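Field reference: sequence -> structure
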Amino acid sequence: MKRFDVFLFILLLVFVSVPIDSQNITVKSVSLQPTDKTAIEQLCLDKNGDTCALVKIKTPNLEGIQFSNPNQYIKASYVGGIYSVYVPAISRKLDFLHKDYMPVQLDLADYGYRRLKKGKTYLVVLDAPKISDLKSSVVIKVEPKNAAVLFDGKQYEANSNGTIEIPVAEGKYTYAVSAANFRSQNGTFTIGKSEAKTITAKLQPIMHEVIVGSNIEKARVFVDNMDYGNVGKLFIPQGLHKIRVQADGYVDLEKEVDVSAATGSLPFVLKENKKITHIHATPVTIHSKSSNIYKNNKKIKEWTNGATIMFMPGKYMLSDDEGKTKKIEVKDRPMDVSL
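Structure field:
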C-alpha cells in the first residue's frame, strides 16, 4: 500500500471511530509542579538514556484515552482520573483520542513551555463534558487569536485558528470576548434545537493620540514596520510597539514604546549620516514551519511564515520553537532566510 493511501486510511479510521455528535475535550490549564518529585522517584529513561519529564493529565475520571503517536512518549498509565505520561524532555506535544470526543493535539508551547525539563512534573487539567443529547453548536471566531472568551459563565481558549466550537442545548446564552489593549465585545443570543450559530468577534484596538516629533520635518514614522506617514499627530494602538523614524540622509532611530493614554508625545532626534554605509532598516523575509520566530531570544510578534520583517543592520541570532537556530548578518540588501 502506498504511503499516501496509508495516510488516508488512518485519517478515515480516526473520523469513523469518533461519533459525529462527539464533544471537545478542553485543556483548562498547564502548569509546572515544582514540589512533585514523581519523575525522579519513579524514574523513566528515554531511548537515549536521558531522564524523561512526566506529564500528568488530570481528567474528570475519563477512562479510555489513547495516546496516538508513539514517538511522543515513552510510557503511559492511568490511575484514579490521572494519566501519567513519561515524555522525552525534547518533546512538548501529545496527541490523544477518546471514542466519545474529538481528537486532541496538545502543544505545551501554547502554554509557555517550549522545552520541558528533565525529571520535572507538569500537570495538565482537562475538562471533558459528559456525553449528552446536545445537538446544537456555537462557533466563536475571535481576533486577536489569543482573546479570552467567557461563554455562559465558563472560560474558553481559542485554537491556533482563533476558533472555539461549543456544543450546547437550545436556549439563551451570553458571551464576552476580551484581550489586552483591545475593546471588549459581549452579547446575548438564543439558539434553537439542532441549530448551528457562528459568532465573529473582531476586537478593535484601543487607539491613542500620540505626537511623534523629530528634528527633521518630513521624517517618516513606522509602527511595527507599518508606515504611519510623516511625523506629527498620529493615532497608535495601545500596547508595546516598535516605533521607528527615518529620513533620507539620516540614521534611523527606533524605540520600543508602551503606548498608553499617558504617552502624549515622543521626540526623535535623528543624527545626520556621516560616512555610515547602512543607515536604514533592511527587509528580511523569514520562512519556517514553526509557530513562532525569535530574534536574539525575543519573540517577533508580527511574524508569520514568509513575512518580511525590518531589521537594522547588524548581527542577529534567529531561533524557532523546534530549537533550530541561525546566525545572520543584516546589511543593506534584502535577505531571504529559512529555518
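Note: The radius of gyration is 25 Å.
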